[in-house]
Each structure stands twice: as C-alpha cells, then as structure tokens.
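Bump. Still looking for T9SS type A sorting domain-containing protein structure tokens.
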Amino acid sequence: MKTLINILILTFFSFNIFISEAGTENPIVKTDNVEIIKALNNAEVYPNPAEEYIYLRIDDKDLSSDVKIEVMSIIGNKMKVTHDKLDTGLYKIDLSNIPVGHYYVMLTVDSEKSLKKFIKK
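Sorry for the wait, here they are.
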C-alpha cells in the first residue's frame, strides 16, 4: 500500500513524501525534488548589503530545469530587474533601477521555491 503525504513548510517550500507499506513497522520513505530543495537552500546571495549588483551562486548543474529568478520588495511587489548568467551556477542581478531598501530574491525550479533576503543601500 502506498500513501501520499503532502507537506507544506512556511508556504515557501513544498514537497511530496511517499510512504510504502504504511502501517508496518518499517515503512519506506522517499522524497521527490530533494536535489532541487538542497540546491535552493544552499544558494548564496552576495554582497549583502549591495549597491548596484548582487551575485547569486546556486549549484544548478544537477537541476533538470532552469532557475527562475525574481526580486521582490519586502511586501511582495515584484521589482523589474535584469540578470545575466555569468557561468554555471553564477548569476549577476542588476539593482540599479530599484530604490534603497530590503528585498527578497525568489528562486524557483519546477514547483520548489526559496527566498533569500538582501539589502540594497
């Protein structure tokens, strides 16, 4: 018997857990999207605080999909920024068109999301 359990953590992360042989002493548990979650959680944003640019480093070599990058204000408004992929896993995000303040970079791969906070000074 296989049971699907959906888990939602802080509304930013979600993943599925499949439990085989539910009700036995030794259920088998596996998750999907583990590599995506690991890559997103280990992503780095620097320098912080930043002035004109921030760099995003993410271990994307094992990801099956492209990383979607969005910059949002602290209240959730999407900001218009451009970014360039400089190298495998390294992105440069232009902050010159956004005002000083606190922001988030939202990273999305497939259905997985992660937020990284930074300050523009």
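The mean pLDDT is 77.

Edit: fixed formatting.
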